[in-house]
Amino acid sequence: MTDALSRLLSTRDWLMADGATGTNLFNMGLSSGEPPELWNIDQPDNIRALYRNAVEAGSDIFLTNSFGGNASRLKLHGAEGRVHELNRVAAALGREIADASGRTVVVAGSVGPTGEIFEPMGSLTHARAVEMFHEQAEGLKAGGADVLWVETISAAEEFRAAAEAARLADMPWCGTMSFDTAGRTMMGITSASLVDLVEKLPNPPLAFGANCGVGASDLLRTVLGFSAQGTERPIIAKGNAGIPKYHDGHIHYDGTPALMADYAVLARDAGAKIIGGCCGTMPEHLKAMREALETRPRGPRPSLEAVSQAMGGFSSATDGTGDDAGAPVRKRRRG
User: Fold this and answer.
1) Is 174 annotated as a binding residue?
2) How far apart are CA 137 and CA 144, in angstroms?
3) CA distance 8 to 106
4) What's the angle, vertex CA 298, arms to CA 292 and CA 304, rounded to 5?
5) Backbone angles phi, psi at 274, to 5 degrees
6) Which of 79, 137, 171, 250 gives the lowest tally of CB atoms within 10 Å of its CB?
7) What CA–CA distance (Å, rounded) separates 90 from 173?
8) pLDDT < 50 positions in the chain
9) How far is residue 29's CA from residue 20's CA, in Å, rounded to a whole number?
């Protein structure tokens, strides 16, 4: 029997993922610096509400509250011995909400970066990274996650380690990187090099793409970069709701539901098959995105100029692939 995500991908032109985890939990009272994974045990009703809100807004896929659920990140809070428990409960709460939805909803076990640097620049070894990701994956699997969702990765070494951990856990997986430095990840990966990396993996992901980063314009440019490589693997677009602004003691994202609706349609037309939001994306954004994807006809692949006109200029003149010199740089952002 094939996994739930593969079944949906085989029968649908596009799937909608969820929005922000952190932004939504901060609105529920999560304190800055507090590990959200502890809420799986301490505030389970809030986590159920997080998941339920995404499902009710139209998401076909939602991510579990386990982004920082690896031993390296949890060690910062003295919780490195609770990896299996916290991930298992994150997925189990998700399974409960998905199974009660009355339709097929994919529970995606969120796996974020370790926060460590690989050898020789740092001390993290491939074996240790695989061990940490595998421990987390086993917890998510025990809780009933349908798929591992590796996200916000910046290093090729970490992507490979997560892929190996998924194989050891015998779980399907998806993987996204965050392109936030002139179209590259923090470790210099471009859209073109990620496509190359994905296709050379012994167990490639079901789908791959980009999440977070700078803003919707830059993320759409990265999606166009994936498509330009001719990949036939489903592409994921999970962009932030506008640009973060700091005021009144908190971070606010300036993207309106209307802006995110435009982004969702552009992402689909740019070649993405799984479309969601990242930081700042709330249920009202997701509802607008779902309605736009359902009601607006598919259009031609957008040009960089069309993206910048709709979403605002880019944060840099190039995305590192050499194909977009002279792209309009952001001066002001529509929001």
Assistant:
1) no
2) 11
3) 9
4) 95
5) -115, 120
6) 250
7) 17
8) 325-326, 331-335
9) 15
pLDDT confidence of residue 332 = 39
Residue with tokens 């739930």: 4
Say what the pLDDT of residue 254 is. 84
Distances in Å between the Cα of 80 and the Cα atoms of 22, 38, 43, 75, 117 are: 20, 11, 19, 5, 18
Q: Hey, how many other C-beta atoms are within 10 angstroms of the C-beta on 201?
A: 16
Q: Determine contact, residues 223/211, Cβ cutoff 8 Å.
A: no
Q: How much is the pTM?
A: 0.95
Q: Are the beta carbons of 195 and 177 closer than 8 angstroms?
A: no
Q: CB under 8 Å to 54, separation ≥6 — which residues?
A: 18, 19, 62, 283, 286
Residue 173 tokens, joined: 């997986």
155 neighbors 118 (Cβ within 8 angstroms): yes
Hey, what amino acid is at 228? Answer: A
Q: How many CA atoms lie within 13 A of 322 on its CB side?
A: 3
Give the domains, in start order, of the chain with CATH numbers: 4-311 (3.20.20.330)
Whether residue 276 contacts residue 238, with contact meaning beta carbons closer than 8 Å, is answered with yes
